[in-house]
Backbone:
C-alpha cells in the first residue's frame, strides 16, 4: 500500500510501504477513504529538519477493516472519524475530556507518549491504537456528500469549536475571529452555532471572506494591527468584543486578539504558538482578560458535533475547497503552501 | 481631620488635612469607621519613589455623613462598604461587571481615569465620587462584631473570591491556593464556599496554616517549587488540581500555579504581576491550561458576598488578626511589613 512521507523541505512523496497489521489487541486497521493536509503539516514541509523520512498526516476518515480482540465499540465495516490525536480513553486526562493530554496518546505521524510509533494518515491504510478510545463510528455509513463535513471533525471543525468554547462564546455575545485559515473559518461557524450575535471575521482574502460570510460572519474586517482593532471597536459601538477566537498562533495574532477584547472578555486560542512563548500578563491583569485554549481535544467534542452534522444543522464541509487524488499529494501540499487553496481533501 | 500620608520609604505619617466636601452632585462624604493596610500598600511603603507625599489606603467601611444632590441609593446615616476602586456604575465595563475597568474610575489614593483626585482611605473622612456606583449600603447598621467581615468585602474577600471564580471552582473540584497572605486565606474560604471538595493551602507559617484550616483548607503543603508540585500531586492521587488560585503575583508563584494544575485545568490569578510581564504560552497550550483573573471587580461580587455575611454563612473577619487605632498607623505598616501580623485593621 502507499503512504505519504515527508523527506525534507518541500519534498513530499507517496511511497510503497507494508500494509499495517494488528499489533495490540486494542488496535484497529482502518482503510482511509479521505484525508487532508493541515496548516501544521506545512511547517514540516516548509522547514523540514534533516534525518529520516517520516509518514505524515493526522486527519482522516475511513472504514474499519479489522479489529483486535479487545476492541469493544467498533467492528469491521464501520465508518469512523479519527481525531488528530490517539487517546486511550481511560486515563485521567481522557476522563477529564482532555484526550490531547492522554498519558498514552500522541498525534498521528509521531511517536506516542507511550513510545509507540503512530502511522501518518495521508495513506491508504492506518493502524489505529486504542481504537475504542480514539475512533468514533457513525451510526450508518454516511453518504459521500457528507464526507467533507465528517472529515472536518477530525481536526479543523473541532479545533474551531475549541476556540469558541475556550472563549466562552454564549448566546448574544459579540465575537471576533482572528485568522482566516480553515480553522478560523470553522471558528466562525462554531461561534455562530453557539449563538454569537455578531461574528466579525478578520480576513484579507476575498475567497475566505465569502466562506466566512457563508459560515455566519456578520462583518468582515480586512485591516490588521491597531487599524484592525479600531475597526472592530467601531463596529461594536466603541467597545471590544466579548470573545475573541485566536486561530493563527503568531505573536502578532495574539496581540490582535488581546487588543480586540473588552475588559472582562475572553480570548480562546488554538493557533499553535509560533511567535514566542510569552503572553503579556500585565495587560491581561489590568483588563481581566482570560486566555484559554490550546491543542483541541477534538475527541471530546466529536459526539455533539457529529450529531449536528448528521442532523443537517452543521456543515463545515465547504472548508475543503479542493480535492486531490492521493497520488497528487505533493501538488496538494504545494498549492496549500502557495495559498492557492484553503484546505485540500485527499482521496486515497 | 487626619489622614495617612506616605512620605517616602518606610515613612508613613498621620497628618492634619482639610475635611472633604461635596465637589460633585454624585459625591458622598463618608466618615470612616474602619480601614486597613493592604499588601499592595507595602510596595509603596517599602520602595517609595521620591516626590510629593500622597494619601494612601483603599479599603474602608463607614457611615455616610452627606450626599450630593444626585445621589439616589444612599442617605446620611447609611453604613457603607467601599470597594477598593471607584466606579461610575453606568459605563460599558461597569455594566459588564468589570467595575475595575470603569472609564471614569480608579483606586482610592490615586488619580482616576477621568483625572480626578481620589482620597486615600486610611483617614477619618473620605469623599466618595460616583457614590451610587461605588458604595454599597447595608440594610441596617451592622453590629460591631460584623465590621471585620464587612471590611474584608472591600478588597481581600472579594479578591479571593475573584481568584476562585476565575479558576472556575465548582462543587467537587480539587483546588490549590498559592499564597497565604490575607487574599490567599480568603481564596481558601472562597473555594470552600463554591463547593471545592479538596482545598490545598500552600503555606509555611503556622499561624496562617491554622487560619487556612479554619477557612476550610483540607490539606496544607509547606513545600514549594517542584517539591510542592510533587506533594500536591501525591495528595491528589498523582494528578494536578482542577483549579489553582494564584494569590501572590510573582513569577515563581505563577510557575507554582501552572505546574500544579491538571491538563484542562484553570488558574485564577489575582496577585498583581510583579515578577515580569510574561506567561509561558507553550506550557498553557500543550496542557490546555486556562489563565483568568486580574484586578478583582469587588463591586460586582459585593451583593452576593454581603448577603452571605449578613446571613452568617460567610465570615472572613478573622483574616484581620490585629487592630490599631489610626494614630498607630505607622506601627501597623511596620508590623505588617515585618510579617508580625497578617492584616491590620485600623480604627479612626
Residues:
Amino acid at each position: 500500500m502507499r503512504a505519504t512521507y515527508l523527506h525534507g523541505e518541500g519534498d513530499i512523496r507517496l511511497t510503497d510501504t507494508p500494509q499495517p497489521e494488528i499489533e495490540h489487541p486494542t488496535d484497529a486497521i482502518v482503510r482511509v477513504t479521505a484525508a487532508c493536509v493541515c496548516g501544521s503539516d506545512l511547517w514540516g514541509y516548509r522547514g523540514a529538519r534533516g534525518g529520516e523520512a517520516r509518514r505524515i498526516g493526522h486527519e482522516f476518515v475511513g472504514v474499519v477493516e479489522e479489529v483486535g480482540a479487545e476492541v469493544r465499540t467498533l467492528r469491521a465495516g464501520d465508518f469512523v472519524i479519527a481525531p488528530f490525536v490517539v487517546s486511550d480513553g481511560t486515563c485521567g486526562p481522557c476522563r477529564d475530556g482532555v484526550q490531547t493530554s492522554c498519558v498514552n496518546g500522541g498525534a498521528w505521524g509521531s511517536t506516542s507518549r507511550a513510545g509507540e510509533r503512530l502511522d501518518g494518515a495521508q495513506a491508504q491504510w492506518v493502524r489505529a491504537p486504542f481504537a475504542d478510545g480514539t475512533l468514533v463510528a457513525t451510526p450508518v455509513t454516511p453518504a459521500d456528500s457528507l464526507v467533507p463535513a465528517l472529515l472536518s471533525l477530525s481536526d479543523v471543525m473541532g479545533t474551531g469549536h475549541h476556540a469558541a468554547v475556550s472563549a466562552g462564546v454564549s448566546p448574544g455575545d459579540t465575537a471576533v475571529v482572528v485568522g482566516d485559515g480553515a480553522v478560523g473559518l470553522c471558528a466562525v461557524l462554531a461561534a455562530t452555532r453557539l449563538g454569537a450575535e455578531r461574528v466579525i471575521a478578520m480576513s484579507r482574502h476575498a475567497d475566505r471572506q465569502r466562506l466566512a460570510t457563508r459560515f455566519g460572519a456578520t462583518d468582515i474586517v480586512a485591516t490588521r494591527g491597531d487599524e484592525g482593532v479600531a475597526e472592530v471597536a467601531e463596529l461594536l459601538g466603541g467597545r471590544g468584543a466579548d470573545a475573541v477566537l485566536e486561530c493563527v498562533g503568531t505573536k502578532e495574532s495574539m496581540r490582535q486578539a488581546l487588543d480586540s477584547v473588552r475588559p472582562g472578555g475572553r480570548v480562546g486560542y488554538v493557533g499553535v504558538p509560533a511567535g514566542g512563548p510569552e503572553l503579556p500578563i500585565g495587560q491581561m491583569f489590568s483588563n481581566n482578560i482570560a486566555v484559554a485554549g490550546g491543542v483541541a481535544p477534538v475527541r471530546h467534542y466529536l459526539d455533539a458535533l457529529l450529531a449536528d452534522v448528521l442532523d443537517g444543522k452543521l456543515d463545515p464541509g465547504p472548508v475543503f475547497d479542493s480535492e486531490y487524488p492521493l497520488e497528487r499529494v505533493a501538488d496538494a501540499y504545494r498549492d496549500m503552501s502557495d495559498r492557492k487553496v484553503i484546505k485540500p481533501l485527499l482521496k486515497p
Q: What stands out?
A: The CA atoms of residues 102 and 110 of chain A lie 14 Å apart. The first helix of chain A runs from residue 39 to 47. The radius of gyration of chain A is 20 Å.
